[in-house]
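As the next step, I selected for study a record pairing a protein sequence with its backbone structure tokens, which the following lines show:
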Amino acid sequence: REALTWLHISERQRLLYIANILFDVVLFSDAPLWLHGRDKLTEQDHFIDLVSLNSEHAMKVSSDDVLDEETVLQFIHSSSEILPRARRTIVTTEGCELSDKVESLLAENDIGHAVLYSSDIKDVMDSITADATHLVGGYTKEFIKIKDVNKTMRQCQKDCLEACLNGARKIQMACGTGKTLVMREIANRAKGKVLMLVPSLVLLHQHAKLFPDFCLVGTGYNDKIRWDSAGFIAVYP
């Protein structure tokens, strides 16, 4: 949910996060490695967008006006190889067109087609309300917040947030339990600059999108440091 509070996300990202909420699935790139039995993700794996935590449902989300045949074929190949027993669904917006060939491919491969109607999107976005405009790190940012964030957090997230605010120095949370929301809340409440350390370049770039008011630092980025940023993200060795 917290990702929908940031203005920088693309239409495709917005649809991914909305589908994440509506279908009770997680981003495949964030899924625990045991779920798909791989030590790391490859480029091919990214043809799957969303997956249920029991690995029984794989999904592809398209924000295009036309669902092309290549996208469907890539999803069929990846999902068949990585999650062969999973139910498969392609999600589009209500205005997306499907050719006869694409509809045949979906039918032949037993792939469902779910439509995100504007009313579905509105229902999710209506739970989000505009807050005030703030000046952060020298830049004017429009901040949007979830109504009463405490009500949207699971109990494990509330417990971790409370522990951190009470001085805990080390918190462990399992994959898929919502670490990012806790991190965002801690960063929002921090006094002064925040340094976030991640173990890989993949996570560095992922968190750069989720924390747009933070600056990337480290190899390849040290000549672009914005010292007035709200915080910094770096890869630790």
Summary: The radius of gyration is 19 Å.
